[in-house]
Amino acid sequence: MSIRTANRSDAPRLRSLVSDLSKFYLRDPDAPIPTWLASSHSEAEFLGRLSSNDYYNYVYELDGEVVAYISIKRPGHLYHLFVVESHQGQGIARLLWEHAAKLLDNCTYTVRSSLNAIPVYRRFGFVESASAGEKEGVLYQPMELRQSVR
């Protein structure tokens, strides 16, 4: 197992990983992903985020396969945190989160959590910061983590 900076060659795998888990954030898991969200899941968009200085991107590899991904948009918005379904519940999300957070110099983080991931973010120290929302069938819970200055 290893955590490394994601690179442009990871884009197809990351696009697939995020798209495959869309059922966890849709009101209707069988509904198509809304156009605005599907466009953010395109390979071109992943390439843009991987190339941008505005994002920190890391992957978790197990036996040479990318099984998890985290992307944080500066200064501290947790944009993506996904773990392949077969590897969920093994602490991989926490390892990625702790790796990324220790490298960043930020004391407030935000996330729009899928509803099923709320317990994971609570364990990281996040709290709900507003009412749950929905946009075209995509359900989310705004959350925030304030850390003391190191």
TrEMBL record:
SUPFAM superfamilies: Acyl-CoA N-acyltransferases (Nat) (SSF55729)
Entries under Pfam families matching the protein: Acetyltransf_10
Occurrences of domain N-acetyltransferase (ranges): 1-144
Superkingdom of the organism of origin: Bacteria
Record bears the keyword tRNA-binding: no
Keywords: Transferase
GO terms, molecular function: acyltransferase activity, transferring groups other than amino-acyl groups
Protein's name according to its UniProt entry: GNAT family N-acetyltransferase
Record organism: Parazoarcus communis SWub3 = DSM 12120
Taxonomic path: Bacteria, Pseudomonadati, Pseudomonadota, Betaproteobacteria, Rhodocyclales
